[in-house]
Design the sequence.
């Protein structure tokens, strides 16, 4: 009998050891990334939103959980999303409402968001369709602060060619501020300089949809945000494309927020794969009917480098760029009263 008890105890110890080892291995795999400090407070908002405001965020998660870029040891590229760094980034944004694009794994992302919420009951809805690359859109909110009034609504009309993603909309209402409710529309438009006309068609469709929605809902409070891919086209600069977007959406009662940082994404630039990345401004926020308390800002590598060049060499990799996303999260604040 005594030997039997000893044997059982040994088996239990072995099982516990295996479980602990597996959990540790899983953590190491989730947190695997380049050496360096990872996400730091200096590249995130200084603290929670001030009283009387709500912080809203947009973040392109770069094909979470994997980047499609192949390994290139000479330039220090990596494919795996560092889940711990992403969680730190989301927690540091301290936003009550968030929009995401390029969520390819809709099952494993919600737990990351919940952990980042620090005990807040984070709710999230995904688009059913994700386009050719399975890049779903998502809108999330703090369940203690907001309740869902309507949605999710997929705006399929913006899929102007096969493989594109629908827009995603929800209507939210504050649980504590009776005057605060709004519609959030998250977008991820066509990319490529050769696809400028497709993007402008998508913008025109969105402008029409917003006009019809405002009439139907009786509420002009609306946020349109996301990755607009304003990279210009043949003989059309990114700035010229953005001016055209501004004109179209102004007809729907929306104004674009200035980005105080000045960029929202990094790319290889005209020099190609030389390890030097340049900044661009692809992610935007348009607002109608709400009291916005300041400009939008981009964080992580955009904040740290102040939109200067990002250099990647073995041993000099930028942790947030390669471990989290080539895009930077964008935040802004709105007041709780009417404009």
Sequence:
């Amino acid at each position: 009998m005594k030997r039997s008890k000893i044997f059982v105890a040994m088996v239990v110890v072995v099982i516990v050891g295996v479980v602990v080892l597996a959990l540790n291995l899983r953590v190491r795999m989730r947190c695997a990334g380049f050496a360096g400090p990872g996400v730091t407070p200096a590249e995130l908002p200084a603290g929670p939103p001030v009283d009387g405001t709500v912080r809203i965020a947009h973040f392109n998660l770069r094909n979470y959980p994997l980047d499609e870029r192949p390994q290139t040891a000479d330039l220090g590229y990596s494919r795996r999303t560092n889940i711990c760094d992403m969680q730190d980034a989301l927690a540091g944004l301290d936003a009550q409402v968030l929009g995401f694009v390029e969520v390819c794994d809709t099952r494993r992302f919600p737990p990351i968001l919940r952990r980042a919420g620090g005990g807040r009951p984070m709710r999230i809805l995904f688009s059913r369709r994700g386009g050719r690359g399975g890049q779903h859109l998502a809108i999330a909110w703090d369940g203690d602060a907001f309740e869902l009034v309507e949605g999710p609504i997929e705006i399929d009309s913006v899929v102007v060619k096969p493989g594109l993603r629908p827009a995603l909309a929800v209507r939210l209402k504050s649980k504590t501020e009776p005057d605060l409710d709004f519609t959030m529309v998250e977008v991820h438009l066509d990319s490529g300089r050769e696809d400028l006309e497709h993007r402008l068609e998508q913008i025109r469709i969105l402008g029409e949809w917003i006009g019809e929605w405002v009439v139907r809902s009786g509420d002009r409070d609306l946020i349109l945000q996301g990755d607009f891919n304003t990279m210009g086209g043949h003989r059309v600069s990114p700035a010229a494309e953005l001016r055209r977007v501004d004109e179209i959406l102004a007809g729907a009662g929306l104004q674009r927020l200035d980005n105080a940082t000045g960029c929202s994404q990094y790319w290889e630039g005209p020099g190609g794969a030389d390890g030097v990345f340049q900044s661009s401004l692809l992610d935007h926020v348009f607002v109608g009917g709400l009291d916005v308390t300041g400009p939008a800002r981009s964080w992580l590598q955009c904040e740290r480098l102040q939109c200067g060049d990002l250099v990647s060499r073995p041993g000099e990799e930028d942790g947030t760029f390669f471990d989290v996303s080539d895009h930077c999260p964008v935040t802004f604040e709105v007041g709780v009263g009417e404009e």
